[in-house]
Amino acid sequence: MDKFMWLFIASLLPATTAWLGADIFARTSAILYVINVLLFNLATAFLRRQVTLKNHINNMQNLNRQENVSFGVNLVTLIVT
Q1: What are the tens digits of pLDDT across the range 22-79?
Q2: Is the whole model's pTM more than 0.85, yes or no?
Q3: Cβ proximity of 34 and 71 under 8 Å
């Protein structure tokens, strides 16, 4: 995907958050919110990888581990939702 598409995903977070906040018990808004957060995790990982490759940064193991844990937690949240 293009970098702007990943940034577009980030711009959807306020909309899905507001929809979830309007009716906290609605299943559809909760599922779309979690999917949006998962896509945001992927976008963050992709954009961070692009920046580190362009700047030749090699010591990113800790951030990669944190990204994987965050993605795993959000994936479990999606399954539970």
Answers
A1: 988 999 999 999 999 999 888 888 888 888 888 877 776 667 788 888 888 988 988 8
A2: no
A3: no
Is 31:78 a contact under the CB 8 Å cutoff? Answer: yes
Please state, in angstroms and rounded to a whole number, the distance separating the CA atoms of residues 68 and 71: 5
HEC string for the chain: CCHHHHHHHHHCHHHHHHHHHHCCCCHHHHHHHHHHHHHHHHHHHHHHHHHHHHCCCCCCHHHHHHHHHHHHHHHHHHHHC
The contacts of residue 18 (CB under 8 Å, 6+ apart) are none
